């Protein structure tokens, strides 16, 4: 059995904080598909560029996303590709625990 350290707890707490806000969660789920620019994320999520910028700053602070400049654009990606798989596993677990949670009628998780 793995010994749980304060580093483990801190890492999971950061992930929990990131997932506790809907726009941040949607950004992370979007970045599973491919890197994106803030303006692309804002358009895809239907929120302002300022909201996306603020949430990306939080996700960077949590160590979950990384950025790279390309010309005049900044591209964001998941900091570790395993995060995409982990998010997919968490989503699958939510559906397994509460199959009605993600029904067409809307989320019953709240």
Automatic annotation (TrEMBL):
Highest taxon above the source species: Bacteria
Protein name from the UniProt record: Metalloregulator ArsR/SmtB family transcription factor
Pfam families: HTH_5
Residue stretches making up the HTH arsR-type domain: 4-98
Record GO biological process: response to cadmium ion; response to lead ion
Organism expressing this protein natively: Kocuria sediminis
Any GO molecular function: DNA-binding transcription factor activity
Gene3D superfamilies in the record: Winged helix-like DNA-binding domain superfamily/Winged helix DNA-binding domain
CDD domains: HTH_ARSR
């Amino acid at each position: 059995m793995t010994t749980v350290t304060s580093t483990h707890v801190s890492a999971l707490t950061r992930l929990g904080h990131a997932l506790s806000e809907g726009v941040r969660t949607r950004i992370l789920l979007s970045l599973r598909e491919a890197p994106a620019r803030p303006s692309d994320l804002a358009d895809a999520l239907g929120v302002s560029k300022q909201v996306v910028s603020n949430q990306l700053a939080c996700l960077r602070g949590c160590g979950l996303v990384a950025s790279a400049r390309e010309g005049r654009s900044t591209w964001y990606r998941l900091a570790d590709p395993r995060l995409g798989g982990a998010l997919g596993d968490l989503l699958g677990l939510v559906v397994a625990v509460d199959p009605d949670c993600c029904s067409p009628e809307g989320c019953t998780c709240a």
